[in-house]
Write a structure and sequence with these properties.
Layout: H1 2-14, H2 21-32, E1 38-39, H3 40-50, H4 56-68, E2 72-76, E3 82-86, E4 96-100, E5 106-109, H5 115-125, E6 135-138, H6 141-154
Parallel strand pairs: 4-6
Antiparallel strand pairs: 1-3, 2-3, 4-5
Length: about 160
């Protein structure tokens, strides 16, 4: 974790910003909860446990700055809530998501499946892609398994 914090510190410094204690507390919360796609309010509640003196406005400003510097990705999964996701170290693009419309779960796809499409866009349209995001909305495996179990129970166990 310390290596990633140092890298983020360098990213901030290269743009003329410092990694203040408030910003570091926010970054630590994001790193500790990397899989969770936290909202600003979620981040604030977790930061407050570590540093009670930090206010909600400071957390919002820090998240916006980190988003502008491409340290985090600000996203909306269709529920009207902005969520923040750390960008993966060493990857050119952000990862992709499977969003369950039933339970709200968000699963990540870490592979970049769109490289060949980007190459085609460059070749056929002379278009240089800087970044992309791909989100799939549907029913997750957990909800599908639960529905199958419930269907089996309602059939008296026969399928």
């Amino acid at each position: 974790m310390e290596a990633r914090i140092d890298k983020i510190k360098q990213q901030l410094q290269s743009q003329g910003y410092k990694l203040t204690p408030q910003r570091e507390a926010t970054v630590r919360v994001l790193l500790e909860n990397e899989e969770d796609h936290l909202s600003a309010e979620d981040v604030f509640m977790l930061v407050k446990d570590k540093a009670p003196e930090i206010g909600l406005a400071t957390v919002y400003r820090t998240l916006e700055l980190l988003s502008e510097l491409h340290v985090v990705e600000k996203m909306n999964f269709g529920d009207g809530v902005a969520r923040y996701d750390l960008r993966n170290e060493g990857t050119h693009h952000h990862h992709h998501h499977l969003i369950c419309v039933k339970c709200g779960a968000v699963d990540e796809i870490m592979e970049d499946w769109l490289t060949s499409l980007e190459e085609r866009l460059a070749r056929e349209y002379n278009f240089k892609v800087h970044d992309h995001r791909l989100d799939f909305q549907g029913i997750c495996y957990r909800c599908n398994e639960k529905a199958a179990r419930e269907a089996g129970e309602s059939n008296g166990g026969t399928e």
